[in-house]
Amino acid sequence: MNGNPRRPSWRPPRRTPRGDLHGVPFPLGDWGHPAARLDELYRWAEDGAIRTIEWYLGDRLWKRRVARVLRAGAVLGTAAGVGLPLLGLADGQPGLARWGYVWLLVAVACVGIDRWFGLTSGWMRDVATAQAVQRRLEALRFDWASESVREVLGPTEGTASEAAERCLAVLRRFCEDVSELVRDETMDWMVEFRAGPAPLHTQALVGWGRHCDGGQQQHRFPLPPGNRPNMPRQRPPEGPGR
Asked: What pTM value is reported for the model?
């Protein structure tokens, strides 16, 4: 690494977060100027993290809006479902109780839609992942600043190639951490998406396997309770004196 100033010579285009989260091609360049080349890689890693944060924050918006509408519908439905029957009893109008059941059904439907599509939990995961990537990006900036200061003041140990390897290790560890955060969020979404009839079916299969492997014999036709099979009684052996 030489003392040339680092100029942001490469920056990927940023677009509005839509669709899936796609990666950016790895920048290819000449290593004749290591400082400029490392700056390109830093800008590539930083912009990739910023795009990830923008994608999660953009995906959070519509989920939060729909979830709030459903939550409000559930609260209003519950209040109307409880209040209308009481109002009908007070005013002597039993027909209001029927509308109370309808509003309770609306509240249950709102909660079910929210849980089935994972809207509330989805925008919470988006916020948590965006904040985690933001914290990791801040750590990268401070690590990169420390490496830049070390380069300006002069390496106290090692050579320029070792300093470049340290910078590459910092960028690689950062990219791996961001990818791991995205992977963890995806795995949480998959677990929540499969938390329906499938886990119950799997649990039933596991339970059947445990019963079969427990060492006890499984009877196809179970014996009625209280009845034990009658075994023929054997006569005791006679002594030698008889």
From this structure: 0.66
